[in-house]
Amino acid sequence: MLNFRNVNLVFISLLVLAVNADIRYGISIWTYLILFIAYASILFYGCYFIHSNFFIPVICSAKTDKKVVAISFDDGPDGAYTTRILKLLKDEDIKAAFFCIGSRIAGKEAVLKQAFDEGHLIGNHTFSHHFWFDMFSSKKNAGRYADDGQSDE
């Protein structure tokens, strides 16, 4: 099965074999480059195609006779928008999922309690992240939140 764990095991094994072959027989640097490109390509596939279940099992659809849609809202709560969304959802008798940024909750606890009381799902998106979060290195991201734990926005 093509998943992150198995791909790592295969490529670590191939790398060990390549190093062993390099020590014994001397192999071309191209062998390492080809291994790297193959590994990076498979990782790209796993990251880009969520339905591949490469990292974790993912539910992208469900077989049902009912006409249903899953609605989720990320990066909240936002004082103005979240309350307006909750009113709209209540008026239409619709349930949704709210994935919150922890640093944005302070002062908006009542909005989250309202969402919960109205039957919506509340989830944790993250504690804090910058708009360009996925463009930063892991070292820079770790340093951003170790300092004060405050939101960067």
Which key phrases capture this entry?
disordered C terminus, three-stranded parallel β-sheet, 153 residues, 2 domains, 48% helix, TIM Barrel, mainly alpha
Q: How are the secondary structure elements laid out?
A:
Blueprint: H1 4-25, H2 29-48, E1 72-76, H3 79-91, E2 97-101, H4 109-117, E3 121-126, H5 138-147
Parallel strand pairs: 1-2, 2-3
Helix pairs in contact: 1-2
Brief account:
This protein has helices spanning 4-25, 29-48, 79-91, 109-117, 138-147, and strands at 72-76, 97-101, 121-126.
Structure commentary:
The protein is elongated. The longest helix has 22 residues, at 4-25. The protein is mainly α and 153 residues long. A three-stranded parallel sheet has the order 1-2-3. It folds into two domains: 4-52; 72-147, TIM Barrel, CATH 3.20.20. The protein contains five helices and three strands.
Form type: elongated
Report the sheet-strand fraction. Answer: 5-15%
What structural class results from the helix and strand content? mainly alpha
CATH topology of the largest domain: TIM Barrel
What is the strand arrangement across the widest sheet?
1-2-3
Q: CATH class of the largest domain, anyone?
A: Alpha Beta
Could you name the ranges where pLDDT drops below 50 across 5 or more consecutive residues?
145-153
Q: What's the helical proportion of residues?
A: 40-55%
Number of helices: 5
Report the mean per-residue pLDDT as an integer: 84
